Amino acid sequence: MNQSLTSLQRHHRQADRVMRGVLWAMFLYALILGFWFDNAGQALVIGGLTCVTLTVLGQLIPGQRLLRSLMGAAFMVMAALQINLAHGVVEFHFGIFVLLAVLLFYRDWLPILTAAGTAAVHHLVFFALQTRGFDLVVIQQGGWGTIFLHAFYVVLETAILVYLAQQSHKAAAEGEGLMTATDRLVSDDKINLTYRIPQRGPIAQRFNEFLDELGELTGAVVRDSRQLEQSADHLAATTDQLRSGANRQLDETAQMLAAMDEMVAAIESVADHASEAARAAQGINEKSDAGDRLLRVSQQAIDALAERLNDANQTVQALAEQSEQVSKVLEVIGSIAGQTNLLALNAAIEAARAGEAGRGFAVVADEVRNLAQRTADSTREIHDILERLQHGSQAAAQVMRSSREAALDCVTDSRRAGELLVAMGDEIEAISRMNTLIASSTQEQSAVSTQIAQNLQSIREVAERNADDARRLDQESEQLQALTDRLERLSSRFHV
């Protein structure tokens, strides 16, 4: 037997106890009437047996419909006993209507109908017996019209009470259905929203509609909780990635900031070096100008030297020509000396032939021959010297020509060197300007890099805040994950 029937039986058993109390109260009232009207035995026997019988049945069949029906009949027996004890006083008939109303507490139409039938049988049978002279009293005055009038009111009240009992039973059934539904809703720590109240009624219908709406709402909550769990998992993963990304961003920003500091230092160093290079290039340019001037002076000196070498070459060539002429003269002198030597030899021969007379002449001829010989020797020596002088002059002339050519080449190279120095000066000037521009640009770049470093510092602060926010978001996502887990556990208790 389910919990709803047990609840209804509890109500019926409670009603049975109430009705037994009313029954025993009527028994006491009947005893009072019995003693009052000197008929206590009838009250004791009939009332006592009725109360004892219903009390025993209440222990044997508690909460049963048979007991309720017998309780309705017992009420009418006690009412008939009181009417009979009071000798049919019409006011005691009111007890029938009161007891019929009391039976409404059962929320069952059958006890009311049983009681009404018992009252009808009592009135018809006992009034018939009364009219035949039996010691039974239903009414003191009146006839069958009064009996049927009483019966009419009993039927009218019974009809009303039966209708009220049915409505009360429906309400009770709906209430019990609600209790059953509430019991079914929560079972084994689970909430079952699929159960519906089988009874038909406005309350049951509204409650079923409420369960439908609650089921839809709970189903949506369950689905949303699952979606929320998935979103929480995705948020946790995303938050973890965000936290990792924020940490990487913070590390990379710190590295970039350190790199920017190093780059700023390097740019400043480059700017200093560029400035020094510009100054050095300016100095080199000045020295190049000075070298160009010196080269021009050297070029002029080399030009003058080339001219002098040319003059010396011409002089040496003239000297060589004169040496050749002297050599020719020496050849003539040598020839004359040879002829003189022959003449002296001939004179000596002739003096020898002359004898003593030609001895002086022979001595002179011998001196002349010696002189001619020395002249020939000197001529040969001079000729040798002239040959050497000619060879030296030729060599000197060749050297002079080579020197002149070298001087001319040196002049050409000097001009080229001058041109190169001029070009180099221009290039150095351009390099100097470029170094100046580089120094200026690097200074501007240093300022920009400093600004970038400051911006990176701001970005680092933002990255630190992002990292803190990511950590807080990670904590909140963990809390959200715990809440979604709890919501999932709670939603898993619902069966929709």
From TrEMBL:
Coiled-coil region: 295-326, 453-493
Secretion signal span: none
Annotated CDD domains: MCP_signal
GO biological process: chemotaxis; signal transduction
TM spans (from-to): 21-37, 43-61, 73-106, 112-130, 142-165
Primary localization class, coarse: membrane
GO molecular function: transmembrane signaling receptor activity
Membrane topology: Multi-pass membrane protein
GO CC list: plasma membrane
Keyword terms: Cell membrane, Coiled coil, Membrane, Methylation, Transducer, Transmembrane, Transmembrane helix
Methyl-accepting transducer domain sequence ranges: 224-460
Location in the cell: Cell membrane
Family stated for the protein in its record: Belongs to the methyl-accepting chemotaxis (MCP) protein family.
Name listed for the protein in its UniProt record: Chemotaxis protein
